[in-house]
Amino acid sequence: MSRVLAFARFWYAFIFGDDWLIAAGVAAAIGVTAALADGGVAAWWVMPIAVIALLVGSVRRGSRRAPRNESEVP
Amino acid sequence: MTRGALLFVTAFLASGVEMVEALTIVLAVGVTRGWRSTLLGAGVAVIALAVLIAALGGAISRVPIDVLRLAVGALLLIFGLQWLRKAILRAGGQLPLHDEAASFLAERANAAGAVRAPNELVDWYAFTVSFKGVFLEGVEVAFIVITFGAARSHGVAIAAAAAAAALLIVLAAGVLVRAPLSRVPENTLKFTVGLLLASFGTFWSAEGAGVSWPGGDAALIGILALLLLTSLAAVRVLRRGFDPAGLSPASKGADA
Question: What are the DSSP calls for chain B, one per residue?
Fold first, then answer.
């Protein structure tokens, strides 16, 4: 069981890293883009804006928590 | 620069960073515990990786290209933003720089402290640590190669060639110096790779969601420029002693 947990932890850290809100935000942004594109709207601008907002927000959260130990994020 | 060349550079740098980390572990264990079991562990890890890549590569090639672009783009974007975030925090003095020399010394101290059973043909400590280091870092390289390869035609060949070139250069450097590759500016590499992964991720995930980019492939350069400017601005703000919102004083830390 501990090996299964360790395996799950490795993949969680590998994909979600220190800030799971990045993954959640990317999923939401892709959903909005797909919905707008499906409705015939030129939605190319959604992803760049969302990515910049996610990056700035994550750096801001990270700077509030610093200094701290490094995690498993590669 | 064409998209193929940009893809090669991204895969080369991303693979190189992971390989430097794996090499640091192998060198530390090899120097301390002897080379036979260390290289055996690294060799078995490479074989296990080859099996994993063959299985994953075959499965991925059967998925429709739009679904792949969406999934791969999202994963690359998440992965790239995580790298970029950490590189910005390090360059801004918010996190300590990852020091390969310190990693080497810590790994060597651990290896020297581990007990070795007498009359054992294989030093299982050296084997296990070397296997783990090479396999885990190798999974990350495999992830980069497979995902890049899946999202465009001839992508696997380009990404695999880039990873092979990175492997040759890192191995040659390792053989020459027999010490941690601490002169490699790791944070600069991670900053660059994070930018490239996030740019490709943004481009492909939007395409997979049904978007047509204005200017076609040239939009990739625009996304890269936007991310670069934002990241440099964030580092500058952090170095001045405030977080991006100007809400909390930053700790004075390492220089980039």
Answer: --HHHHHHHHHHHHHHHHHHHHHHHHHHHHHHH-HHHHHHHHHHHHHHHHHHHHHHHHHHTTS-HHHHHHHHHHHHHHHHHHHHHHHHHHHTTSSPPP-HHHHHHHHHHHHHHS---TT-SS-HHHHHHHHHHHHHHHHHHHHHHHHHHHTSTTHHHHHHHHHHHHHHHHHHHHHHH-S--TTS-HHHHHHHHHHHHHHHHHHHHHHHTT---TTGGGHHHHHHHHHHHHHHHHHHHHHTTB-TTS-SBPPP----
Contact status of B20 with chain A (Cβ, < 8 Å): no
Q: State ipTM.
A: 0.82
pLDDT tens track for B160-208: 788 888 888 888 877 776 655 555 577 787 888 889 889 988 998 998 8
Q: Is residue B36 part of a domain?
A: yes
* Chain A to chain B Cβ contacts (< 8 Å): 145
Domain total in chain B: 1
Question: Which residue range(s) make up the domain with B119?
Answer: 3-83+95-184
> Would an 8 Å CB–CB cutoff place B5 in contact with chain A?
no
Distance from CA of B153 to the nearest CA of A (A): 23
Q: Does residue B165 belong to any structural domain of this protein?
A: yes
Domain ranges for chain A: 2-65
